[in-house]
Amino acid sequence: MKRSTVKMLLASRELDHEVLLKGWVRTRRGNNQVAFIAVNDGTVIHSIQVVADLDAFPEALMKRVTTGSSISVTGKLVASQGKGQRVEILARELIVLGDADPEEYPLQKKGHSFEFLREIAHLRFRTNTFGAVFRIRHSLAFAIHKYFNDRGFFYLHTPIITASDAEGAGAMFKVTTLDLNEPPRNDSGAIDFTQDFFGRPTNLTVSGQLEGELGALALSSIYTFGPTFRAENSNTPRHVAEFWMIEPEMAFYDIHDNMDLAEDFLKYLIKYTLEHCQDDLEFLNKMVDKGLMERLRFVLEHPFERMNYTAAIHILKQSGAKFEFPVAWGSDLQAEHERYLVEKHFKRPVILTDYPAEIKAFYMKQNDDGKTVRAMDVLFPMIGEIIGGSQREEELGKMQQRMKEMNIPEDELWWYLETRKFGTVEHSGFGLGFERLIMFITGMSNIRDVIPFPRTPKSAEF
Ligand code: 4AD
Ligand code: MG
Known about the structure:
This protein is α+β, with helices and mostly antiparallel strands. The protein has 13 helices and 17 strands. Helix content is about 30%, strand content about 25%. α6 packs across α8.
């Protein structure tokens, strides 16, 4: 017989026929006549109840049906007699596929803390919360591709290994095959990277943007969706060293088109999840964050507030709020400032534009005031910055000038500069942090709990 998933069985309209189920035992209760076994296979948040008449099965076998063990059950799918479920399976045949010794299996009791579950990240997929989070993560990845595909954007694969480190987005991880104990040296005693694999120093990418721009300046609209790496030593609930980023880049878009796209994109993804991941969201709303659904609907229903950095600084200064980091024009906003604007002042997502040039990357379009650039950051409740982007500088001379001021060597980026030399056009783009999006949509408050295998300082166990 062909195996049916729990998802198929729970949705089944046809009853009273034999089915084959395989999955992991979540809980077991009952008395000395009958066992009620909740079996989950990860296809949905819910488990299905298997009813086993103890007279029909050897005691030695039933002893092995414990939390965490895997079983195969053949039996009739029937309308449930009990409360709490519509259907259940009356077991006719039961096989234990794999034991899970109750003395050793760490997921015994309900209600483990997320901190504890991080220590057993190899097993946390088997909990309701992480099942829900990773099913939603999958749905969002799918929705992102659907959104762009439906709108004529092309998925461009930008490199993970890169020789440029000019973006300035953060410290980079080096990639090398040189013997670190005895690296080859040149005459001046420095490491001789001409002998390295690529014949030059290389790193893991912090962003696919610069390469993405090359694509957009030929294909009109592209997006990247891949892993990015930052070797900053930031131990916060919102930073990981390896994260996934979605970076659309569009020719013929100014910053207003860019903001419109960012807002429409985020709302589409929230709506998609509300429509396609109802059961998982309801579970998270009940167990993890009681305000979750309300917050998601609220963001959908209201336009994002748009204002410039200078006006935001003014609001923060007038607020009278006590901040750990001082508010001053010219310095970067901290998460506490961003969250004040979003959660206390406007009570909705905010898109801030026109940041001081000094705190932003060289490629952002310079405003006529000579002080600010056409940056845009999207700030979200609970998260702070979820998107960072900008209109790009398309004038070669202005960009060269800025690179000089920032000590960025032109010869490293000659290929990037050529896009400004040959047929340059107005263009814009942004980067959405995939994990921060998932945090917002699931209500999970630590980024380590929305990526299957988190990479943080001093931690890469699983
Ligand atoms: O603001 P960032 O650094 O922007 C860029 O990298 C641009 N090249 C994007 C572009 O214009 N194409 O990063 C973009 C987003 C942030 O808003 C944040 O959501 C996320 O990436 N992010 C991180 N997420 C998790 N851990 C980290 N260490 C992150 N750093 C940035
Ligand atoms: Mg940023």
